[in-house]
Amino acid sequence: MTIFDVSIDALTGGATDLDRYRGSVLLVVNVASRCGLTPQYDKLQPLYDTYRDRGLVVLGAPCDQFAGQEPGTSAEIDEFCRVNYGVTFPMTEKIEVNGPGRHPLFRELIGDGPDIQWNFEKFVVAPDGTVAARFGPRVEPDDPELVATIDKLLPH
């Protein structure tokens, strides 16, 4: 099983078929609207814009498990991201990334690894669905190592 076999709903409703991203490079990020790291959206969107034609998909996964920093409804989160950061990349429903309610997407991403530390932890997923790299919350989306990891996996 890979993340492409996981079922998850889109933030705006309806199922997000992760299988449609098979063959793409995914950057999966647990996001929050009221976090000190929220301005990372300003770098996630340009990263998506720069590399999406080569096959990058940024997938935001809102989570309210860290100090209640994503308290809004799906509609509120969607509006906040679009209005304040111009987000056009796909977003999932609000989910849990740690504990007994951990969504299967994050069970696949984390595997036997440690729990998510905080909002904006990043997973780079290779086109075959394997996790190629994991970056901590404070690693910015334009960090050279993160960008190089993505670039190496994308077709040239």
Automatic annotation (TrEMBL):
Domain of life: Bacteria
GO MF annotations, alphabetized: peroxidase activity
Transmembrane domains' residue ranges: none
Keywords noted in UniProt: Oxidoreductase, Peroxidase
Pfam families, alphabetized: GSHPx (PF00255)
GO BP: any one term: cellular response to oxidative stress
Active site (catalytic residues): 35
Family: Belongs to the glutathione peroxidase family.
Protein's UniProt name: Glutathione peroxidase
Organism of provenance: Actinoplanes regularis
